Amino acid sequence: KAGVTQTPRYLIKTRGQQVTLSCSPISGHRSVSWYQQTPGQGLQFLFEYFSETQRNKGNFPGRFSGRQFSNSRSEMNVSTLELGDSALYLCASSLVAGGLSSGANVLTFGAGSRLTVL
Amino acid sequence: AQTVTQSQPEMSVQEAETVTLSCTYDTSESDYYLFWYKQPPSRQMILVIRQEAYKQQNATENRFSVNFQKAAKSFSLKISDSQLGDAAMYFCAYRTTSGTYKYIFGTGTRLKVLA
């Protein structure tokens, strides 16, 4: 079955612009989470959506936002881009979100969207 | 707040040898999950192995095994018979079973496999 699909894979923006990234989860997966990956910082959690509701949010400024649609596809938006927003943005999907399952939620990651801000 | 620390930014291992990647974490919870994820160069991150904190037995997946020391809050990954395809970034991750249920990742260890 198809994996987690992220688009676009690469993009270049300038400071002050905004960007929208898309993530299509594995069919049947209802939870989508987003991470920012930068060298030396590892993966920083942005937010998690389940059934169109944001269930968790990381410590990022309000310029970072997201949403999830009824088909579980998710988008994240970064407004007023800064140089420090340059990163690989990873999306991951799982069957359920957080504590709704007694088992561990294994994340399936997409290939990521590499954003460069000039 | 929970933290995950990977103190080895980079490791090298000869092909066919064994290597151990270190991970420590800090938490006040008694129940949680621990994971090792692998990110090959320019490829997607995949799950290597996972461990439930309530299980005393160390998890094993083929050539990959963990040494889980709950009291010491240590969760190391051992790769036996290293192969060139094992070269990747390895991330240790923690997930709580209560509260926000977020995953917390370490900063990663880059593993190089030498032929």
Question: Overview of this structure, please?
Answer:
The complex is a heterodimer of chains A (118) and B (115). Chain A has 118 residues and is mainly beta. Helices cover 0% and strands 51% of the residues of chain A. Chain A has no helices and eleven strands. Chain A has strands spanning 5-7, 10-13, 19-24, 31-38, 42-50, 53-57, 64-68, 74-78, 87-94, 108-109, 113-117. In chain A, the strands form two sheets. In chain A, strands 2, 4, 5, 6, 9, 10 and 11 form a seven-stranded mixed β-sheet that branches. In chain A, strands 1-3-8-7 form a four-stranded antiparallel β-sheet, with no helix packed on it. The model of chain A has no long low-confidence stretch (mean pLDDT 90). With 115 residues, chain B is mostly beta strands. Chain B is 0% helix and 53% strand. Chain B is built from no helices and twelve strands. Chain B has strands at residues 3-5, 10-14, 19-21, 24-26, 32-39, 46-52, 60-61, 64-69, 74-79, 88-96, 103-105, 109-114. In chain B, the strands form three sheets. In chain B, strands 2, 5, 6, 10, 11 and 12 form a six-stranded mixed β-sheet that branches. A four-stranded antiparallel β-sheet of chain B has the order 3-9-8-7, with no helix packed on it. Chain B is globular. The termini of chain B are far apart. Chain A binds chain B through residues 3-4, 33, 35, 40-45, 48, 55-56, 58, 90, 92, 97-99, 104-107, 109-112, and chain B through 6, 33, 35, 37, 43-47, 50, 52, 91, 95, 97-98, 100-108.
